[in-house]
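The freezer alarm interrupted the setup, so I double-checked each line after restarting. Inputs confirmed:
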Amino acid sequence: SQQGEEDPQALSIQEGENATMNCSYKTSINNLQWYRQNSGRGLVHLILIRSNEREKHSGRLRVTLDTSKKSSSLLITASRAADTASYFCATENQAGTALIFGKGTTLSVSS
Amino acid sequence: EPEVTQTPSHQVTQMGQEVILRCVPISNHLYFYWYRQILGQKVEFLVSFYNNEISEKSEIFDDQFSVERPDGSNFTLKIRSTKLEDSAMYFCASRGQGVETQYFGPGTRLLVL
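Predicted 3D structure, all chains:
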């Protein structure tokens, strides 16, 4: 399968610290996307990185992609309590018609 | 900012009953999707829809499921005879032409008793 798989499964940090989540996948991709989900709510798109990109920034988010290792990381800098959520990576299937999600990392930021 | 909307937000039904979940995608989007998330598990792809036909469907999307775009704004998911294991959060998503990002709705929480 082409699923992204995140680690760690759960991460607890203090406000102001950085949070790093990793994602691995198995097959060739066109792009890799990160989504956020607050408890019991919908998915919010955070950032997309294409297969020919190595790093991308958006505000306090930094995403890297290593296609040779089939892995990506999401870094949230200077975390806030409001960043508490589950974070999922997703890759497009080979037909480009669906997103395949990983199991997610649950981030808890305490103040 | 335009957003995907879904109704109802919650639905409780008896096993064997039919349910229809409704979605209004972003207005100029052309690609539509349904996903589901069983409590505590990952988001799973069900089906994608473009140009009034199914583009792709997963193993989960069996004969009990169907999708329809009955008019220019709605996109529906029907489950003909619900099972206990259909209990999940169902998400609709849409995507514009030439855009890679899918935009998700808030979900419908379906509980089958």
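Quick read of the result. Chain B touches chain A through 24 residues (CB under 8 Å).
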